[in-house]
Amino acid sequence: MATAEPTPRRTRVDAERNRDKLIEAAKAAYTAAGGPVPLETIARDAGVGIGTLYRHFPTRDALVEAVYAAELDDVTGSVPDLLRRHRPDAALRAWMERYATFVATKRAMAETLRAGWASGRIATSATRERIGAALATLLARGAEAGMLRADTDPDDVTVLLLGTLLASADTPGQTARLLDLIIDALRPKTG
């Protein structure tokens, strides 16, 4: 007689909601603080107890890695929606703002992320590929519409963005002005 395979357990809806609230609270806390935040603060901001946090994320590293993965999914997955809602050049500019938030959050978790990269738990090449693919899509659509240069390498734009965001991290008004300059530099040459 054949034995039936056990049915995989599904995550309860409230447990999934709590996990999502913890990731959002951690993201907000790390971005605002610019560095490590007590786990108790994250649990309180998510509206759950510390035990719930530890059930979902047994270590600080696990929480940071989950925030990083969620942020990466969000920043790379936002491209289709941005292109539906905006002209390609405006979609790229909006994406740059979202990428700036991703970089700010990543900076706040840098120590833990470096350990994850060093151990191989987080693949940096996958991050760079996904960011490059998102940028390539935006740049290609902009070039097709005649709004952006067709000769731009997405990796060059990534480096330009990172340099800009890291150099202007403490001056938000400057960041916005510099992102506008990048958009201007990506417009087709005239004359």
Major sheet characteristics: none
User: Quick check: average pLDDT?
Assistant: 88
* CATH architecture annotation name of the largest domain: Orthogonal Bundle
Name of the CATH homologous superfamily of the largest domain: Tetracycline Repressor, domain 2
3D shape = elongated
| Helix/strand structural class | mainly alpha
Beta-strand percentage?
under 5%
Order of helices and strands: HHHHHHHHHH
What radius of gyration results from the CA coordinates?
20 Å
For the record, the count of structural domains works out to: 2
Provide a descriptive summary of the structure in words.
By secondary structure, this protein is mainly α. The protein folds into two domains: 12-58, Arc Repressor Mutant, subunit A (Orthogonal Bundle), CATH 1.10.10; 64-186, Tetracycline Repressor, domain 2. Helix 6 (88-108) crosses helix 9 (154-167) and helix 9 packs antiparallel against helix 10 (172-186). Helix content is 74%, strand content 0%.
Notable traits:
Arc Repressor Mutant, subunit A, Tetracycline Repressor, domain 2, 10 helices, 0% strand, 191 residues, mainly alpha, 2 domains
Task: Outline the fold blueprint.
Layout lengths: L12 H21 L5 H8 L3 H7 L3 H18 L1 H7 L2 H21 L1 H10 L4 H21 L9 H14 L4 H15 L5
Helix pairs in contact: 1-2, 1-4, 1-6, 4-6, 4-8, 5-6, 6-8, 6-9, 6-10, 8-9, 9-10
In short:
The chain has about 190 residues and is mostly helical.
